[in-house]
Amino acid sequence: MTSIGDLPEDVLVELLSLLPARDLLRTCRLVCAQWRYVVDLTTLWKRKCQREGFYLQSLDRTVSDWKTFYLLCHLRRNLIKNPCAEENFQHWKLDLNDGDKWKVEDMPGAHGRNIPDPTVHKYFVTSYGPCLKSQLITLKQEGYWNQLMDEKRPEIVVKDWYAARFDCGCRYELTVRLLSEDYLVLDEFHPEPVVIEQWSDGVWREISYTFQNYPAGVRHIWFQHGGQDTQFWAGWYGIRVTNSSITIGPMT
Question: CATH assignment of 4-74?
């Protein structure tokens, strides 16, 4: 009597590639030596990448581990919650909230311009006193297990958008830290603060940084940004920030 174990390898690859990755790794791989062999095949994970739209012909010679590539593509999303102020200040910790405090305004705002991304409709704006807000991301809670982070060290890409009002000078600052389980700093991106003079163009600008080859042991990512106006005017004349993102991408 014929069983599933009698199927040709290519047919078994096609069938198993239809299953979720979690089932393949936690269940199917434990069935027998044959299934473990098939689940570990590069062709199975490449087929899953093709099936779910993660595959590009140009990647053939650059992807060294199709299983990790698939898992990282599947997990990839913005880890910053409420990046565009659609939920007011939910998910953000207001570390400094001086002057007339943080505020949410609609794009483009007084003496401002629209951001290039038409899906972004709101931004956070600072006042004449220092205003800083942050989020702490715990990687295991987001699906990135310790072994993956320690052995593969996938790229961690940080992006943020900032702009000034046309009629007021302001200051923007950003700090991103990769933290251990005990919240020790393993790596950090902390560029010099950006000072924008009064009567600027008011254009939204993106700042971007990619963490690579960082130490093993990264378990959390801490993101903080903000600033203030430099004229010390009452109201909300300080730096504007929105569309922040942290993504963990596949190494190719």
Answer: 1.20.1280.50
